[in-house]
């Protein structure tokens, strides 16, 4: 007999920008792509350190707004936190 176990380390891709009013539907939102991710959390900050977006849903979409207003073009730091879906890859 052969035992096959799926055990993959997390794979995460974060685009380096987005256009909230872009021509293509996929351009309208900032999102993270990946596989084998568990316990996900993202926090996006203004350049003054104010939290302007937060989600614990890996399938989140951020449209570039805060309190219903479009944020100006700029750089927005973020923190991603996540674990591997498979315990043997956690903490790596």
Question: What brief labels describe this structure?
Answer:
single chain; 92 residues; mainly beta; three-stranded antiparallel β-sheet; two-stranded antiparallel sheet; 7 strands; elongated
Total count of strands: 7
User: How are the strands of the biggest sheet laid out side by side?
Assistant: 4-3-7
Task: Estimate the mean pLDDT confidence.
Answer: 86
- From the N-terminal CA to the C-terminal CA, the straight-line distance is 31 Å
- Residue stretches low in confidence (pLDDT < 50, at least 5 long) are none
**What's the Cα radius of gyration?**
16 Å
Report on this structure.
The structure is a single chain. By secondary structure, this protein is an all-beta fold. Helices cover 0% and strands 34% of the residues. It is built from no helices and seven strands. The protein has strands at residues 11-13, 33-35, 37-45, 51-55, 65-66, 69-70, 78-84. The protein has a three-stranded antiparallel β-sheet, with no helix packed on it. The protein starts with 10 loop residues before the first strand and ends in an 8-residue tail after the last strand.
Topology:
Blueprint lengths: L10 E3 L19 E3 L1 E9 L5 E5 L9 E2 L2 E2 L7 E7 L8
Antiparallel strand pairs: 1-2, 3-4, 3-7, 5-6
Would you summarize the structure shown here?
Helix content is 0%, strand content 34%. The chain has 92 residues and is mostly beta strands.
